[in-house]
Specification:
Number of helices: 37
GO molecular function: ADP binding
CATH topology of the largest domain: Rossmann fold
Largest sheet: 5 strands, antiparallel
Radius of gyration: 41 Å
CATH class of the largest domain: Alpha Beta
Protein name: DUF7779 domain-containing protein
CATH architecture of the largest domain: 3-Layer(aba) Sandwich
Shape: elongated
Structural class: alpha/beta
Main location: endoplasmic reticulum
Distance between the termini: 127 Å
CATH superfamily of the largest domain: Alpha/Beta hydrolase fold, catalytic domain
InterPro entries: AB_hydrolase_fold, DUF7779, P-loop_NTPase, SERAC1
Keywords: Endoplasmic reticulum, Membrane, Mitochondrion
Length: 849
């Protein structure tokens, strides 16, 4: 065997715990002698140390065998294949030799006269070795974690962790894979309550720190039902000593020289993950802090966290990236610094870590602050709940925000309540916080409630900013996963405006964007929702389909008998209510409370009898719903009027336009009737607001649609504010100016506008002369158009009514009588024509002039 100064250390596993360490040492030496070559028996210098097994210390022991001068021939295969193993028979069994040190290896036996105070785990860097990376290059080849700490920290269980970090190998492991492997091994070596609550110090070099960071981030996000060794890991971890950790990535261009061959090497994916431009490291970096200084492989910007000195000690070492973790003597400056830190950790950690676990036992359990009970008769919305569930399934991996938007009364809040209950049922360890987000005061009230149920310290301190206090608590992953529901977040201005009076940041900054939390928003305002979710998903909550509507109606009116006739009435009723859940719930509750005098058939009859009846039913609040925010009116009309008030406050021109639209037929409202003097950009902004609130829909051909029940609500709102008559007069003034004469070239335009004439001519009793003349102009032009279309009877009625209005405004009755006789004769004469296209010109406008 050739003589070499460098020693070679092998790990031997499979030694039985049945024998004392001295006997095991002798048996192992005999086994070595049997396998040595003849000349090796006399020349070999072998040192054998028996240490406990990290995995099964009661049944197995491990040996660290150091060959000074060279590797014996029978183990030469492991020099060629350092990732392999070699078995040797010993007695009736066999033992295993390796030099890769994969998994955990304990380096010395703690002093049995005192209890173990802490576990120390060392993780080597990229292309390093679990044992050799920490071994000095001096003539004695000291491995400080073993040779020095065994004397200086005899009451610690010191271990190294090995993994396949060789870049030259053809493994395909990623950071995620390495992190998972580390967590699995930790489960095996900390498998009792005493071990899981024992203080833990990590020592990591380079890429080993990345693996550790990733592992701890994932451990913080685990659930209580996960393995206790992992759920307790963040509480047990007291300190970390990082040597040259590439927090922002390694300088991959230099490391690529370690690879054999071209850029298609299997390790290329790993290099991309640890590069200085790594998205993965950037994501983890937002949740991770470390210490240490970088010398060679890692640039200076990546080396420091810029934390306060009481959190991060920055210690420069005068060595390159590899040598910074190798100490040849106990007097080495770097070792003395590390030892001082470890001794202080060992002194302070037991009390601190014990307190953490004590606090954890007394920590309030996750609960829900949803202020409404679960609805046992909840109907439909499975597609919406499924979409939200799919997005929020990523809690623990990334932050997700989802918004439910739609018309008031469409069921956004009820769907959010149902989802919140299901989320708690599927994850009992998750907090669910419900916050009324209609204004800043209520949002702050919601945060105060979070502070109360979570028992956050200093919540009663008047000097504390409750928003900042709760925000910090929510950001701390140790408190567990959470779901926050922001209900009725219709006005996003309250989130984005600076509070100059209090000197407080915008409220949106107090909504955490952490991976262990998600936010669900309900809003009537599509744009407000989009501003709050950012790149999250906005889900449009549509009206129910017929099947869902009928199920809801029957749930609210359980006494109804499903006969053929009643089913048809039910279908007619939910259609009349436009399949809106709140309107259906109102109707069902009203019918149920007045049964048997009021049936579905009777309700439907009364509903269709008049618009005033419809308004009465839609305003009725006799049946209260305790599952709704008491500050928000229950009736569908009152609910929509909240939207009108909000829009009027933020953008008065939008409510002006909505009010004008409500005067026309609800379908096919042409832009030319409502645009007025707005320029195109102003008009588009106004339309966008109304569409965002789902009060209107924009169609092709510059037309708009308004829900019938919304139209009723707007008219009622105008009536309450004594503006209805003014808007009716304005609509007639616009129509008189817009509806053209009956010439052939105007027919298409006349047809488009004619459907709105009946709406503007409703309620024209007791109007002033100017309004009468506008109505007369509309009717005269409509009469002309109808006459040219061959609809003579209606044309005659329109024309006569126009003359009557004109006569009412003018005392020249003789002239009006002569005009009537002229019209009568003209109509009789023209009724003889069968070809409308050759009718002679006819204009009531001219007669009225």
């Amino acid at each position: 065997m050739a003589s070499q100064r460098k020693s070679h250390v092998f790990r031997v596993t499979g030694l039985s715990r049945d024998k004392p360490d001295e006997d095991l040492q002798a048996s192992l030496q005999n086994a070595l002698n049997e396998n040595f070559a003849d000349e090796e028996r006399s020349q070999s210098k072998t040192e054998i140390t028996i240490v406990p097994s990290c995995y099964d210390s009661d049944q197995e022991r491990v040996a660290l065998v150091q060959f000074r001068g060279g590797v014996p021939q029978f183990l030469s295969e492991l020099r060629l294949n350092p990732l392999g193993d070699w078995q040797v028979e010993i007695g009736d069994g066999e033992i295993n030799f390796d030099c890769h040190f994969f998994g955990f290896t304990q380096l010395y036996s703690p002093d049995e006269r005192e209890p173990v105070v802490a576990d120390i785990i060392a993780i080597a860097g990229l292309d390093g070795h679990a044992y050799g990376s920490w071994q000095g290059r001096g003539n004695l080849g000291r491995m400080w974690l073993r040779d020095f700490l065994s004397k200086d920290l005899p009451h610690c269980r010191t271990m190294i962790y090995g993994y396949n970090s060789k870049l030259s190998s053809h493994g395909v492991n990623t950071i995620l894979d390495y992190g998972r492997e580390l967590m699995e091994e930790i489960k095996k070596i900390r498998n009792t309550k005493e071990l899981q609550q024992r203080p833990l110090f990590f020592i990591a070099h380079s890429f080993g720190g990345i693996i550790l960071a990733h592992c701890l981030v994932r451990a913080i996000q685990t659930m209580d039902e996960d393995h206790p060794a992992i759920t307790s890991l963040h509480r047990a971890t007291y300190s970390m000593i990082f040597f040259g950790i590439p927090h922002k990535g390694l300088v991959v261009e230099d490391i690529q020289q370690m690879l054999a061959g071209d850029g298609k090497h299997p390790r290329e994916k790993l290099l991309q993950q640890i590069s200085s431009k790594s998205d993965l490291l950037d994501t983890d970096g937002q949740r991770w802090k470390r210490t240490g200084d970088f010398i060679t492989t890692v640039d200076a910007d990546s080396a420091l966290l810029q934390l306060p000195d009481h959190v991060e000690d920055k210690v420069p070492l005068h060595a390159d990236h590899s040598m910074m973790v190798k100490f040849d003597t106990r007097n080495a400056a770097g070792y003395r610094t590390v030892l001082d830190k470890l001794r202080q950790f060992a002194k302070d950690a037991p009390a601190v870590v014990a307190a953490r676990f004590t606090q954890a036992r007394h920590r309030p359990q996750p609960c829900s602050t949803v202020p409404f009970k679960k609805d046992p008769m909840f109907v439909g919305r499975e597609d919406v709940i499924g979409a939200v569930t799919e997005k929020h399934a990523a809690i623990g991996q990334r932050h997700e925000r989802v918004a439910l938007v739609g018309l008031a009364g469409v069921g956004k809040t009820q769907t959010a309540i149902e989802y919140a209950y299901r989320a708690r049922e599927s994850a009992p360890d998750m907090w669910v916080f419900w916050i009324h987000a209609s204004n800043a005061a209520r949002l702050e009230q919601g945060y105060q409630q979070i502070a109360a149920v979570a028992e956050i310290p200093r919540q009663d301190d008047m000097e504390m900013n409750i928003l900042q206090l709760v925000y910090q608590w929510l950001c701390d992953a140790r408190h567990g996963r959470w779901l926050m529901v922001l209900d009725n977040a219709d006005n996003d201005k309250i989130f984005f405006l600076n509070n100059n009076v209090k000197g407080q940041a915008p409220l949106v900054t107090f909504l955490p964007q952490v991976p262990h939390g998600s936010i669900l928003i309900t809003s009537r305002n599509d744009q407000a929702a989009r501003n709050l979710v950012g790149d999250g998903q906005v889900i449009k909550v549509e009206r129910m389909n017929e099947k869902e509507s009928l199920t809801l109606l029957r749930a609210r009116n359980p006494s109804s008998q499903s006969t053929d006739g009643i089913v048809e009435d039910e279908k007619a009723l939910v259609k009349a209510l436009e399949h809106l859940p709140l309107a259906i719930t109102q109707a069902g509750s009203y019918i149920a409370s007045r049964s048997p005098r009021v049936t579905i058939s009777r309700y439907l009859e009364l509903f269709h009898e008049s618009e005033s009846n419809q308004i009465y039913f839609l305003e009725h609040e006799a049946a209260k719903d305790i599952r709704r925010d008491p500050s928000i009116r229950y009736a569908i009309i009152r609910t929509w009027q909240l939207s009108f008030e909000q829009i009027h406050q933020d953008q008065p021109s939008a409510t002006d336009l909505l009010a004008l639209m409500s005067m026309f037929d609800r379908q096919g409202i042409p832009e030319e009737l409502v645009r007025g003097d707005y320029d195109i950009l102003q008009f588009e902004d106004i339309i966008a607001t109304l569409v965002d609130y789902s009060l209107i829909q924009s169609e092709i051909n510059d037309q708009f649609i308004m829900h019938r029940l919304v139209q009723l609500s707007v008219r009622r709102w105008l009536e309450i504010h004594h503006q209805l008559r003014d808007l009716q007069a304005q609509s007639r003034r616009i129509m008189a100016r817009t509806f053209p004469n009956g010439h052939d070239e105007n027919w298409a335009r006349c047809r488009r506008l004619f459907v709105h004439v009946r709406s503007v001519l409703e309620n024209t009793s007791d109007i002033d002369d100017g309004d009468e003349l506008n109505a007369a102009t509309i009717q005269s032009n409509c009469g002309w158009f109808l006459f040219r279309q061959g609809v003579y009877k209606e044309a005659e009625a329109m024309t006569r009514r126009a003359l009557e209005r004109r006569e009412k405004c003018s005392p020249a009755k003789g002239n009006t009588t002569r005009q009537k006789r002229h019209i009568d004769g003209h109509l009789k004469e023209e009724r003889g024509y069968t070809d409308v296209g050759i009718l002679p010109p006819f204009t009531v406008s001219a007669i009225l002039a």
